[in-house]
Write a structure and sequence with these properties.
Blueprint: E1 2-3, E2 12-13, H1 18-28, E3 33-34, H2 37-40, E4 41-49, E5 53-60, E6 66-73, H3 74-78, H4 83-96, E7 105-110, E8 114-120, H5 127-132, H6 139-158, E9 161-162, E10 171-173, E11 182-184, E12 191-192, H7 211-214, H8 227-241, H9 251-260, H10 275-284, H11 295-299, H12 305-318, H13 326-351, H14 364-367, H15 435-438, H16 443-451
Parallel strand pairs: 3-7
Antiparallel strand pairs: 1-2, 4-5, 5-6, 6-8, 7-8, 9-12, 10-11
Length: 452
């Protein structure tokens, strides 16, 4: 690998056989911001639109890989409250994760004014879709969903990362009606457990929040990754009973019920559930986080242990952790350490820079709740980057979602594109792209011309 650039803005050209080049490319693609998006992708059609972001079905020309490309304006992204810190946080989180049950971010392309994020194209819909259609899930299907999510959470928790926004809409499927293809999406509220001060301390979606999070009074306080287990427990309850654990009809009522965390285990829908399922459910919904079961312990529980072993064997056959090639491991690890140091430096700079006052990024629903005590308020994901095709001002989900989404290709709503840092060391990977491909009719060019 040769350096062709100046020290301040290094440019590298990779050399070697095809296998080595592809190994390096796979290593770099989710770690750097690339350029020449319009020369490298064939864009087919728009599959989603919000106020500030559009989602396109696109294909990478060199290998035919299809992705959901989210194109949006950096100006709109950075205008969001705490936008710069959120950018660094989400990008850092997503670049550390690599698991078959965590949504994959393939690569990032950047121009002076626009961002293009290549995300895994998930065509199996969401858990929300299944519940909305009143699908009756078997015990085996529920086990597959829980095990897949817990396996993904295990990697996150091992890396001291917590999701903090597990809910029906953020649980997606790679394939329709294939429960073991479940994937966790949307890392906009994810954070490191040991962060000195959480960017958003009390956050999540009412009806899915752990009591230690929703009742947090000290905004400099901390909690552990078992908050995700409580949220998943609430989802588990809904899958078993078909009813939300906090069934209030208003925002204020649901927040109150969520804070009290009194879950009704005596309802008739649970009377015929397997004893082991009820036992696991109660351990996941333990109010005291010190006594709550962990993600690893959940997978070893009698209700899930056998399914966990089956799905682990399947994943080992289908998925290879990055960095397994010994000949490149040391060089890749060295570059990865540099990237981690750079992220830490950027994060420290932003933390020490003047910040606007914290507050809830309100939707219309939240704006109408100004009279609610501030202790009840939660930081919720801004709809700006969700890429969903319904209104960006739709009411936050407090039980079962209500808004019907458009569904092209039955593609599930993708997660928010990572909100990118402004300054990042760029490594250009040189390719020979046929001229006719560079001049293809690309519907995204119209979008770009408006922005740049």
């Amino acid at each position: 690998m040769r350096d062709f650039g100046q020290a301040e803005h290094p440019t590298y050209k990779l050399q070697g056989n095809d296998k080595i080049i592809m190994q390096w490319r796979e290593f770099f693609q989710s770690r750097i911001n690339q350029w020449q998006f319009h020369s490298l992708f064939r864009v087919f059609k728009k599959i989603g639109k919000g106020n500030f972001a559009s989602v396109y079905l696109a294909e990478r020309i060199e290998d035919g890989v299809q992705m959901a490309i989210k194109a949006f304006s950096k100006q709109a992204a950075y205008a969001e409250e705490n936008g710069k810190q959120a950018i660094v946080n989400e990008l850092t989180i997503m670049r550390k994760l690599n698991h078959p049950h965590l949504m994959r971010m393939y690569e990032i392309y950047e121009t002076s004014n626009s961002l293009y994020v290549g995300l895994e194209l998930l065509q199996g819909g969401s858990l929300y879709d299944l519940i909305k259609e009143k699908a009756i899930l078997s015990t085996k299907q529920i086990q597959q969903i829980l095990v897949g999510i817990l396996q993904g959470l295990c990697q996150m928790h091992q890396k001291e990362i917590m999701h903090r926004d597990l809910k029906l809409e953020n649980i997606l499927f790679k394939q329709s009606k294939k429960m073991d293809s479940v994937v966790i999406a949307d890392f906009g509220l994810a954070t490191h457990v040991n962060e000195h001060v959480y960017l958003y301390c009390r956050c999540g979606t009412p009806g899915y929040v752990a009591p230690e999070v929703i009742n947090m009074k000290d905004m400099k306080g901390h909690y552990s990754s078992v908050c995700d287990i409580y949220s998943l427990g609430l989802v588990f309850y809904l899958l078993l009973t078909g009813k939300p654990p906090f069934p209030g009809k208003s925002y204020a009522t649901v927040v109150k019920q969520n804070r009290e965390a009194n879950v009704d285990f005596s309802i008739k829908q649970l009377q015929n559930a397997p004893i082991s399922a009820i036992d696991l459910l109660k351990k996941m919904l333990e109010k005291d986080p010190q006594k709550r079961i962990t993600s690893n312990q959940c997978l070893l529980h009698p209700f899930l242990q056998e399914m966990n072993q089956i799905m682990l064997e399947d994943n080992q056959n289908d998925f290879i952790e990055e960095g397994e090639e010994n000949d490149l491991c040391s060089r890749m690890n060295a570059l990865n350490e540099e990237s981690v140091k750079f992220d830490a430096l950027r994060k420290n700079q932003l933390i020490n820079s003047p910040q606007s006052s914290p507050g809830v990024l309100a939707t219309k629903q939240l704006k109408q709740q100004k009279n609610i005590d501030s202790q009840n308020s939660l930081q919720m994901n801004s709809p700006l980057f969700t890429g969903k095709t319904d209104s960006v001002d739709s009411i936050p989900n407090i039980g079962l979602p209500q808004a019907k989404q458009q569904n092209t290709f039955q593609a599930s709503p993708q997660i928010k594109p990572s909100r990118f840092k402004q300054q990042i060391k760029t490594i250009y990977i040189f390719r020979n792209i046929p001229q006719q491909m560079q001049q293809q009719d690309n519907p995204l060019l119209k979008y770009t011309n408006k922005k740049e």
